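User: Predict FAD-binding molybdopterin dehydrogenase's structure from this.
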Amino acid sequence: MSVRFILDGEVVELAEVDPTATVLDHLRYKMRRTGTKEGCAEGDCGACTVLVGEAAGDSVAWRSVNACIQFLPMLHGKALLTVESLKEQGAPNSLQVCMAANGSSQCGFCTPGFVMSLYGRAIGASGSDLPVADVIAGNLCRCTGYGPILEAGETVGSLPRDDAALVSRLAELGAESASGEWRGRRWFAPKTCEELATLLAEHPDARMVAGATDVGLWVTKGLKTLETVIFLGDVADLSAIGETEDALIIGAGVRYADAHAPFARLHPDLGELVRRIGGLQVRNAGTVGGNIANGSPIGDGPPALIAMGAELTLRSAKGRRMMPLEDYFLDYGKQDRQPGEFVESLRVPKPDPDAVIHMAKLSRRFDSDISAVCGAIALTVEAGTITSARVAFGGMAATPRRASACEAALVGQHFTQETMEAAAQVLESDFSPLTDVRGSSAYRLEAAANLLRRLWLREQGTAISVLDLEALDG
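Assistant:
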């Protein structure tokens, strides 16, 4: 079967597709759309930003993504916009004119990516409710400075776009499951969990790909060849978000951009943590389940979700099984997922309104950076005594892990500065972190201990960051 997508109103049909050919390479080398640039080939700089659209009821839901780590089969049944798509009657549109007029570009290499991110905001794409600075946090410029670019984003505001004719065409184009083969390598794009379970039973060694924000680098940087790939982006069941009286139920395929608001309702710290998971393009592709399933010790989501008491549901053709999220991570690169199983959903209990919670990500660069340490602390305090404690960290061990000695030092003690300090001191018995480019072992231990101290300070009304100062002033 061919890959079919709509570009500028025309259906593009590709009969034979390498399962891991990138959208960026196809645009530049096959279609000669060279406005989309390659800067990093790892989803970090935003120079390759494009917009992908999907039918959503009677409208088209657009989202900005990094073309350098999106694979061509992921475009099947969707619409694509590149910087060349934006011209109006053969001339630049108003956003492009504004960018040129106010000095938003010098060398110009990064400019198409900025234009696409800002255009997405202007037409109401995913993340358009965010401040301009957040929308372009995933776009890097090495020569201009960001002032004029931010000014252009604020000046242009919203731009009209009529997608009425596109909606029905998209619904028809992507109505059925897709699959293909190229030089003996195969790819599949199922539509339901039942179909996915059957495919995994038949191909237990297949690589599942949701947003490709991690797997994309295996290909572009590691030059890895994937023989059989199952793309999860069209499995509607995995993108469901539900809510009960006491919990949030979130499908494994929910993108972080869509998870931001429901997670923020659980706790503001969780919302802020999600906001800092990569740039908007990464959050528009990366999924909650993918961040868990790949088992990275520095994934930002798992420590917070472990501290919240999340439960994981795994599914296969044989049925389902549930487990506490922390039990899924066995060792570095090893998770409790059997052949044929996939992560289906996550149940996150709603915290008690009086729960004492603090979550934080520490990285060398504030935006779009990998964590050196990511920590989450959730305490229940009754009559001044800590009756339960869940403390979890990423970047401190081979897996995201709870700090059992620290928790033991907290439970049953009075909620005081002395108790928090004592708990901070025993973290050395929980973790022996490694030293790498992101931080030394000593730094990681001290930073983790400081998160416990910060929780205490915050509960006393002491500002511990710019965000806290703004909250106190507000």
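The chain has three domains: 1-175, 237-349, 356-471.
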